[in-house]
Amino acid sequence: MLQALLIILIASQISCHPLNTRFVLGATNATIEHIARCALRKNSTNIHLDRARCVLESYPLIDGHNDLAALYGIFANDSVYSVDLNSDMSFVWNHSYSRVDIPKLRMGLLGGQFWSCWVPCDAQYRDAVRMTLEQLDVIKRFINYYPGTFQFVDTSDDVLKSFHAGKIASMIGLEGGHSIDSSLGALRMYYELGVRYMTVTHSCNTPWADNWMVDEPTYNGTVLNGLTPFGKTVILEMNRLGMIVDLAHVAKKTMLDVLNVTRAPVLFTHSSVFSLCNHHRNVQDDVLLKTVFNFTIALFHVLLR
Ligand SMILES: [Zn+2]
Description:
Blueprint: E1 7-14, E2 17-25, H1 29-39, H2 47-56, E3 61-66, H3 68-76, H4 89-92, H5 102-107, E4 110-117, H6 128-145, E5 150-152, H7 156-164, E6 168-175, H8 184-192, E7 195-199, H9 229-241, E8 244-246, H10 252-261, E9 266-267, H11 285-295, E10 298-304
Parallel strand pairs: 1-10, 3-4, 4-6, 5-6, 6-7, 7-8, 8-9
Antiparallel strand pairs: 1-2, 2-3
The chain binds zinc ion (ZN).
Zinc ion is lined by residues 175, 248-249, 270.
Enzyme class: hydrolase
Main location: membrane
Keywords: Dipeptidase, Disulfide bond, Glycoprotein, GPI-anchor, Hydrolase, Lipoprotein, Membrane, Metal-binding, Metalloprotease, Protease, Signal, Zinc
């Protein structure tokens, strides 16, 4: 199970907008010793690049959140076959978000990817479940369309097998609890389809959890005060299934409630440190400390400018 692994979370943040989060799964003593040996490398014209390659060629770097599937909807009407991901997609789709293509993923030595399945908040109470299923379909289709590059996986063992076979291990994260439509049955079926983490909320409340916007001073909508009793049941059911709880996008009280109820480590797939960037999408120091001490997760946030 993915949750059983020690997770080193390295979040990268560009200016003040939380964009990319990457983490390495499977850190063991051997991993740490190997990384230490890489750090000792000196005989190179580009020592830092050489050291980075030394680590990434031996252990999979996992990107925790990638919105490519949503771009298929925006730019290609969900048609996988009309898109060539071997092209430079920043020119093909010519949009600031369209930076992901196979040459860049390979150049970055990416070992694994959580492809994000996201549907807008205004689909909540309407067709969020259908839209979610359609986006899961898009993700599975583009993974299968590039069998030499991507391999669908849903266990940590298969992440490593895929990495050692030279593929980018491809997992699925569901971004937003509104996709389950308050149904534990829907949650369980998403797990069956391969979803291995779920972000508790996107930027809207569900009937059972507050999102980050309730922490904004100007917010004047409904406040649930974190997780409702049903929200706690959702978290425990995710724990039982082996679906990781992602706390990007949630309110601070929701983070704290989840940390009190969860029986497994959690993720912040695309958040940053509030004390470095005081946006309410980011994680405050007392929450970070609680995360580290309660769940033995080594968690590092790195600020890039
Ligand atoms: Zn997001």
